[in-house]
Design goal:
Blueprint: E1 11-13, H1 21-42, H2 49-74, E2 76-79, E3 83-87, E4 92-96, E5 100-106, E6 113-118, E7 122-126, E8 129-133, E9 136-141, H3 146-157, E10 160-165, E11 168-172
Antiparallel strand pairs: 1-2, 2-3, 3-4, 5-6, 5-11, 6-7, 8-9, 10-11
Amino acid sequence: MDNDHNFTDSLQFRPELISRKGELIAWFCAFLVGAGWFILVINGRKVPGSVLILGIFLLFSALAISLGNWMDHHTHIRIYNDHLTFGNGLRHAIMVWDDIRRVEVIPSKWGKKVSVQSEHSHFEFRTLGEVDFRGEIKGRLGFRDGDKILDMIIQKAGLKPVESTSAGYYYTRQ
């Protein structure tokens, strides 16, 4: 926990957490391929190269999914009167409102991707997106209040909209 600030003076936001089912499936598949590999080796049989490639791919996939889930569980944005903080377990950024130079917004199927940039730091977050499969919502990702966070950053940093492009739009100091 951050001892430098009184949390009663801030707004704290956390992203939606996705189901860990995909992570468990990835680890289970990696385990199954690893077990098959082990059985082939102890029986003195040659392990096909495709099993090696599949096993390595599944292992790295499971590791990547686990890292992503761990980061999601540690991600937060805190907005104070004079600055904001962002952390995700691997990256920590503190930005005073006057130091924020640019905010880029890239619309996507699963929420807007927002990049906040200052002279010495940057971070990215996603507004709320819904994973839809055949008309049924299978999951949510990003920050539920992502649009509110974006509006607060633009307002408190005193940024103005700049020409939109086909890839998105951005705000800067003018």
